[in-house]
Amino acid sequence: MKIAILSRNTRLYSTQRLVDVARERGHVVRVLDPLRCYVRIAPGNMSIRYKGKAIKGIDAVIPRIGVTSTFYGTAVLRQLEMMGVYTPNCSDAVLSARDKLRSLQILAAKGLDMPATVFGDNPDDTADVLAMLGEPPHVIKLNEGSQGTGVVLAEKRSASQSVIEAFRGLYANFLVQEFIAEAKGTDLRCFVVGKKVVAAMEREASPGEFRANIHRGATAKAATLSPEERRIAVRAAAALGLGVAGVDMLRSKRGPLILEVNASPGLEGIEAATGVNVAGAIIQLLESEAGVALAPVKRRTQRAG
Ligand SMILES: Nc1ncnc2c1ncn2[C@@H]1O[C@H](COP(=O)(O)OP(=O)(O)OP(=O)(O)O)[C@@H](O)[C@H]1O
Ligand SMILES: [Mg+2]
Ligand SMILES: [Mg+2]
User: Fold this and answer.
1) 148 CA to centre of ligand 3 in angstroms
2) In what side-by-side order are the strands of the sheet with 151-154?
3) Is 179 near ligand 1, meaning CB less than 6 Å away?
4) Which domains does the chain have, with CATH numbers?
5) What is the value of ipTM here, to two decimals?
6) Mind listing the pLDDT tens digit for each residue in 83-134?
7) Binding site for Mn(2+): what residues are annotated?
């Protein structure tokens, strides 16, 4: 198979692992910086070029699109989809996952539980928006944050109001959630590939910190999930249309709560904590799905042409 990885940096652990495993399994792999791909749009004739040469004959693409290139990266991915290339995570799914509000709305519609979440735009409504949530502490998050940046714990209502004012002043979209205290700074990262959780880790925040992100100093160890947690993780990935997803969950008094679903989850932490060959699972998904998905897309393109 000819596989493309959309990634800004060849040297990233996740990118490198995918390249190595794909080559080991006999595939031809290319890493394409999405910001160096340029496209031509025409009915029945969608094309992409990269550093002066046409990109052709790709069977499958793995998008690893960072927060800084969401718009352009997903546009390039969409072009590849329209050229009939298989992807486990399509552009629409990547866009939904990147937008925390949108993904929580989609998950709620499927009956999946999460910390109570509110948002509102007008400063005149802030008091009532917070009243919908209940008593502090509250967690205020940037809608498109990642690695725990822009996730703030406000112990008092006045602190929630100040943080909200600050985010509004920066024209940043945000959401406010109930704080799940009983999680005690620990969360679960469930790595879904296809319709299975292939690896899961429990991350514990460093002392004095409530965010269990490895980038914020958290430690990780392999986790054993309950059948319900597995089911929820798989359902969450499927609800957003993601074949590869990092589903973050908190263990709460009322059961597992989904925090977010990441469309380009890192491989380093999860492979180190669990010893699972997650990159291998992703390449195997491509092997089993790419052929299946190719045929109908190609037929559609020909009819449209
Ligand atoms: N409502 C909440 N109650 C308790 N802890 C929370 C809550 N929301 C977030 N956290 C903690 O903060 C961490 C970061 O939050 P979240 O996963 O929403 O943000 P992120 O920046 O997108 O992270 P990632 O790097 O995983 O993409 C969570 O892993 C969790 O430990
Ligand atoms: Mg995230
Ligand atoms: Mg997270």
Assistant:
1) 7
2) 117-118, 174-178, 138-142, 151-154
3) yes
4) 2-89+281-304 (3.40.50.20), 117-179 (3.30.1490.20), 183-263 (3.30.470.20)
5) 0.97
6) 999 999 999 999 999 999 999 999 999 999 999 999 999 999 999 999 999 9
7) 248, 260, 262
